[in-house]
Structures are given as structure tokens and as C-alpha cells.
Amino acid sequence: MGEPGKHRILMVSDFFYPNFGGVENHIYYLSQCLIKEGHKVVVMTHAYQNRSGVRYMTNGLKVYYVPWKPFLMQNTLPTFFGTLPITRTILIRENISLVHGHQAFSTLCHEALMHARTMGYKVVFTDHSLYGFADVGSIHMNKVLQFTLADVTQAICVSHTSKENTVLRSGLRPEKVYVIPNAVDTAMFKPAPERLNRDEIVIVVLSRLVYRKGADLLVEVIPEVCRLHPNVRFIVGGDGPKRVRLEEMREKHSLQDRVDMLGAVPHAKVRSVLITGHIFLNSSLTEAFCIAILEAASCGLLTVSTRVGGVPEVLPDDMVVLAAPDPTTMVHAITRAIHMLPRIDPQDMHNRMKKLYSWPDVARRTEIVYNRALKCSNPPLLDRLSRYLTCGTWAGKIFCIVMIVDFLLWRLLQLWQGPSKDVKW
């Protein structure tokens, strides 16, 4: 057993290192801060190329790269019950007290939370995304989320907009959902040692070049900004299916000398790109929070962003210019930002970000959620099944069958491998 008041946490998600993104960074930095507070943290994710088995990261963070191969967008193939034996093994071997799943789109997260509840563990879920309600993909995803959250102990969202979205999609009671924002490693993201000359204004874009990130908006915005402001140059970092459209735009308008296409930028080099610019441009069409904005502000860049999702909650008004996600409004917002630049002090902005967002603060607030989750009682199986029945006329019955089968398989594993270290109901 660990020290009194200290937890043994299993973080689960399909998204983790060596990938880099908002979810991956959140899990890593949160885990590091929890370890420094004396908690034991273990991460469970799927194998990445030749990275399989058990690996150790900074401060002894133990990572299980389960030998499941991703099949779509870094997600593992749904198996429902295939991950039960290995999940049970990790929970028992590491003497886990609480399971924390991340990201609604992660198959591994949903399955691990299901198995953990079957075995009597308290579970916490963090949602990092916003989803709609009308398209086929969102309807399917929302039903899966409703299934997972029907029996979740506590939930966390990264913004108030994200909380409202999650509550509406899942039917979860609002009092069970906490808002804990992301943070930024301000020690890593520092402004340039010397202030940049403003004779040439550099606008930086760092994003996956996909539809959801507003790559199509960039195709229309960049040529117009270059036409209105001859002293503006763009640096575009990132890769994706929409990169071809941006390169075609650059050729069509002869902007090769004013639009630099960097391709994919490793996370370790993000700061070196950011500090070459004056303005950071985010054109996302949907965003629960957007850590990239925090990284840019910490480096002293003024942000221009679409007014979507949780973005308006992220920065104070004097650090960001918000615009509707349409080309004309965004061009006007960039013009306004260019006029604001003389009033921007990068070092002052960095110092303010230190106070506004820190991972130790995120860890402390998350620890409070853990404490509340562990105080919750474990309802009997029949009470849990009644929760699933409320998920829909047919879906509720299917969910109940899935949970009954999972419970029976767990009991068979107990008979085969021994129940001595399993959680007792």
C-alpha cells in the first residue's frame, strides 16, 4: 500500500508519447506533477510502431505500451472485452486505486473505464473535445460517451463550454462534472531574448492542416492579408490533407517569398518557431480549449483566433483578438492585431501566463476530484445496470448485456487467475 492520502493512478488513453498534442501533453505534465506530489502514476496506451511493452519516462513514470495496433486516427480497434485480461493484470500488478481515462475518441479509454467499474474501481474521465449532435459520427460518439459516463464516478472538462457540451451529450449530472483548464510549461515557452523588429510583421500558424482546424479558412485569409499589408509574412507549420490546398494557394497568388511552409514541426522545436513571430493565428472551427494559444501567449505573441468552443475562456481580452470563423472577419481581426502590436510587451505577457496557468495548479485541482471520487460508494451490480437502462430503449438493453458479459468474464478470470488482489464489492 502507498502512503496515507496518496493515490495510485492509472492514466488511460490511445493518445500518448511519442505522439504530441493537447491530450498527450495533458497526460504527461499532469502525471509529472502528481508524481512530484508523492502519488504513483502509471500510463496505459497502445503500442506505437516498435515502442511496445513497458517503458519508463522522467521521474519514473511507468508506461504500458499494450501490444494493440491502431487502426484509425491512432485509435485501437474496439473489442469490448479483448482488453479485460491485460487491464485487470495492470490494475492488480500496480495496486491501482483509481483509473483516469482521457479523451472521448479513445477506444482504449472507454474499454478500460468499463472494465475498471466492473472490478469495483473508482474512475474519473476527462473530456478534451467538443462534438456536435446532428452528424452520423457525432451521434455514434455521443451514444458511446453516454454508455461510458453512465457509471463514471467523476468527470472533468477543460472549459465551461466543454462541460456544457459533455453534459448535453452524455446526460451526466452537472454536479459530477468539474472544470479544470489545461496549462502550459512556461519554463519551456519563453519569449525571444530580444524584442523583434516590427518593420516586417510575422504571423505564425502551427496546426494540423485539416478541415476541423480551419485550413480552408487560411486558404482565403492569407492572400487577402498579404494584399492589404505588404510588410506581413506568414510561417505555416504543420501537416495534413489540406496542406496541398495551401501550397496551391501559394502558387496561385505567387506568395512563395511571403508564406513559408515548414511541414510537421516536432514539439521540441515549437518554441523556436513561435519566437520568430509577432502574431499567432488560430483558425479552428471547433476547439474545447486550445493549448497552442497558451504556448504562443507564453512566448509573447498576440493571438488572433476564431471565436469557437472554449477559446474565449482561455486568454484575457488584451492578449487575444477574436473573430467569427469567416474570412472577412478574420482579415479585419488580423488588421486590428497588427495595430495593437506596439502595445504588446512579450515579457509581461509571459509573466502573466505564469500566474494564470500552471500544471502544479491543475494537479492540485485534479487531486481534489480524485479525493471526492474515492469517497463515493460502490453501488451493487443491479443498481449499475439500472443506470444503463436509462441510456435508450434499445441502447440501454444492449449496454446492460455488455456489462453483464463483462462481469461474467471478470468472474471467470478470478476463478482462473485468482481473486486475492481484486477489488472487493
Automatic annotation (TrEMBL):
<dbReference type="Pfam" id="PF00534">
    <property type="entry name" value="Glycos_transf_1"/>
</dbReference>
<dbReference type="InterPro" id="IPR013234">
    <property type="entry name" value="PIGA_GPI_anchor_biosynthesis"/>
</dbReference>
<protein>
    <recommendedName>
        <fullName>phosphatidylinositol N-acetylglucosaminyltransferase</fullName>
        <ecNumber>2.4.1.198</ecNumber>
    </recommendedName>
</protein>
<dbReference type="GO" id="GO:0006506">
    <property type="term" value="P:GPI anchor biosynthetic process"/>
</dbReference>
<keyword id="KW-0328">Glycosyltransferase</keyword>
<dbReference type="Pfam" id="PF08288">
    <property type="entry name" value="PIGA"/>
</dbReference>
<keyword id="KW-0337">GPI-anchor biosynthesis</keyword>
<feature type="domain" description="PIGA GPI anchor biosynthesis">
    <location>
        <begin position="46"/>
        <end position="135"/>
    </location>
</feature>
<dbReference type="InterPro" id="IPR039507">
    <property type="entry name" value="PIG-A/GPI3"/>
</dbReference>
<dbReference type="GO" id="GO:0017176">
    <property type="term" value="F:phosphatidylinositol N-acetylglucosaminyltransferase activity"/>
</dbReference>
<dbReference type="GO" id="GO:0000506">
    <property type="term" value="C:glycosylphosphatidylinositol-N-acetylglucosaminyltransferase (GPI-GnT) complex"/>
</dbReference>
<keyword id="KW-0808">Transferase</keyword>
<comment type="pathway">
    <text>Glycolipid biosynthesis; glycosylphosphatidylinositol-anchor biosynthesis.</text>
</comment>
<dbReference type="InterPro" id="IPR001296">
    <property type="entry name" value="Glyco_trans_1"/>
</dbReference>
<feature type="domain" description="Glycosyl transferase family 1">
    <location>
        <begin position="192"/>
        <end position="341"/>
    </location>
</feature>
